[in-house]
Amino acid sequence: MSTSSARETASVAAAVRERAGRWRRGTPTGRLVALGVLFAIVVLAIFAPLIGSDPEAVDSFGELEAPSGAHFFGTDQFGLDVFSRVIHAARIDLTVAVLASLLALVVGMPLGALAAYRRGWFDQVTMRIAESFQAFPALLLAMGVAAALGSSLRNLVFIIAIVNAPVYFRLTRNAVIPLRDSDYVIMARAAGRSTRQILFGHILPNVREVAIAQFSVNCAWAIQILAGLSFIGIGVRLPTAEWGLMVRLGTDYIVTGEWWVSVFPGLAIIVVVLALNEIADSFRREVSLRP
Amino acid sequence: MTSVAPDPVRATDDARDGDLLVVDRLAARARTRQGETFPLQDITFTVPRNAIVGVVGESGSGKSLTTAAILGLLPAGVALTSGTILFEGRDLLTLPERQLRAIRGAKISIVFQNPRASLNPVISVGKQIAEVTRVHTGAGKREAWEHAVELLDGMGIRNARRRADDYPHQYSGGMAQRAALARALACSPRLLIADEPTTGLDATVQEDVLELLVTRIRERDASLLLISHDIGVIAATCDEVVVMYAGTVLESGPAGPILEGALSPYTAALVACFDVTESGRMRAIPGSTPVLTHAHAGCPFASRCEVAEPVCADSVPALEEKGGRRVACHLR
Predict the structure, then answer these.
(1) The domain over range B50-77+89-119+171-327 is classified in CATH as 3.30.390.30
(2) Contact indicator for B184, B129 with CB cutoff of 8 Å
(3) Quick one: which of A140, A156, B255, B257 has the most CB atoms within 10 Å?
């Protein structure tokens, strides 16, 4: 009885070690694939003007042509090459996503660290503000702000950043709380460092892993929000190429058999979001396994 | 070694002649979930210039809290209720934060018991030491780095130039404490507070580190406030000693006379604990330290004291000059 349970424990322990070892030894295949896919999409986006046709010149080609050698992803109802539009859209979607996530990070992380470090009323007030932001579904909040501010590309970056900043804020705050009374933070104060120097020089470098993992997930969210806003008509406007908007344009034709107008931009969203999530996941696993 | 420390806070001439640090009737109150406590009740002692002063006492006697108060780093929920802390003649408790920051690290610095925890894990050791110099002297990056290497070398780190690039986890415990001490000495402080600096180290390393520390302090004409519960360490290094118990000071003065002929029964009991040669085994003081939920009504040690008399429980003994030292005891 006891020997069998001991054997069981040993085999479980071995399995855990084996898995841990696999991650630590680290050929994270998933991450390599994800990075490769992202890299390919970024390259396509950068060279989109050289590879594809003009994404906004109406009736360049026949309307609603099925995918073929000439048009890999077919053409849409305006006679535009869907492939060209998908790779042009990558420029907008990725740029907005990265800028918005960066802005959210730059605002959210220092505030979160300050809230945890300062405690008291500052912590309470900022925490309640972050919570009230997060009480709304992200897309709903983004819709409201977009409706109020208007939806230029610049505003879209701000809107998505506003929606995402509370996430960085709370993550950082929670990561800093166990550090704020650590000896080295007290040491830094004992050495005459100012609050700003302690936050940026001593505390934030210790939680940067949180930021890196979150940044990747956040870019994925940002793309979904941007696509979502465009899909319901308050994000990017025609004739600009954007994935969510392109999915919207194709919805009328799916029932009549011209599936390619929606499916390819939709696939682009899925692939990019999955790749970003995989990168974040593999990174987080690695960090959590670190001794 | 050249000192790169500036003089951010100028003291008056007569303050230069007086004691470096004067802590006078310090008392503190702490608010906890369990209610109020009074961890410091009456702390009075002085640290002369060029002196090594040991503070002994059991856990909870207020040793660490007193040092936190000196640096203005009391934990949340703890507040001073009375007393003054004079450093070079200036009251640290009324000094604005900006001036306090100029003193911390430059004129008063501190080392904690756990060296590894007191070094930031993601910054190289050399950079952490150089940073202190740069903050307080405005020295350039390169200059501060050279100074850091010198300091590490001075604390007995071999290959200091190469090891300065390492991160704290690459250091052994003893090396980490040497590095922490190097950082504390970066600006040649007038006062170094060392809170159990060798407690976490191997016995063989303890002596080396302690000896180096004393040498570095002496050659800088600085003072050292050495907090320890190890009488042996205190006896070996200190000029003066302060005996703390339950948030009060029971005896203070020159180390030799106090450790060899204690006037306070508590000091005597404490010394006897470490005197294993007499009985061949370690003694313990019976009873436990009093709870600090209210101000002492009598002598805080009365309940454990072998020679206590009724008066001891009735009134708090004052710290008075007796026989070349200060003692708080009704019977002496």
Answers:
(1) no
(2) no
(3) A156
Cα distance between residue B103 and residue B227, in whole Å: 21
Is B203 an interface residue toward A (CB < 8 Å)?
A: no
Instruction: For residue A202, give the DSSP letter.
Output: I
- DSSP label of B46: E
Angle between helices A208-231 and A82-118 (to 10 degrees): 130
Q: What is the mean pLDDT of residues B16-37?
A: 86
The residues with which B111 forms a beta bridge, in sequence order, are B194
Do the domain assignments include residue A14?
no
Q: Where are the domains of chain B?
A: 50-77+89-119+171-327
Interface of B with A in 161-200 (CB under 8 A): 180, 183
Answer for the pair B89, B14: CB distance below 8 angstroms, yes or no: yes
User: CATH no. for residue A57?
Assistant: 1.10.3720.10
Least confident of A23-37, A118-132, B103-117, B300-314: A23-37
pTM of the predicted structure, to 2 decimals? 0.76
**pLDDT one-digit tens code per residue, B87-134:** 998 999 999 988 988 899 899 999 988 888 889 998 999 999 999 998
Closest approach of chain A CAs to the CA of B322, in angstroms? 36
CA atoms of B65 and B81, how far apart (whole Å): 13
Instruction: Check whether A160 has a pLDDT greater than 60.
Output: yes
- pLDDT in the model for residue A165: 92
CB A222 within 8 A of CB A160: yes
Residue A1 in this model has a pLDDT that exceeds 90: no
What range defines the domain where residue A75 resides?
Answer: 29-289
A108: closest CA among A37, A155, A163?
A: A163
Distance CA A36, CA A30 (A): 10
Rounded distance between C-alpha atoms, residue A163 and residue A157, angstroms: 10
| Of the partner residues A186, A187, A192, the one whose CB lies closest to the CB of residue B136 | A192
Structure tokens that stand for B289 in this block:
């330290």
A65: three-class secondary structure by DSSP: coil
Q: What confidence tens digit (pLDDT) does each residue in A214-260 have?
A: 898 899 999 999 998 888 888 787 788 889 888 888 888 888 888 88
**Quick one: closest CA in A to B72, which residue?**
A190
Domain presence at residue A12: no
Which of A73-77, A196-200, A238-242 is predicted with the least confidence, judged by mean pLDDT? Answer: A73-77
- Name the residue among B110, B114, B131 with its Cβ closest to that of A190: B110
Report the C-alpha gap between B95 and B285 in whole angstroms: 41
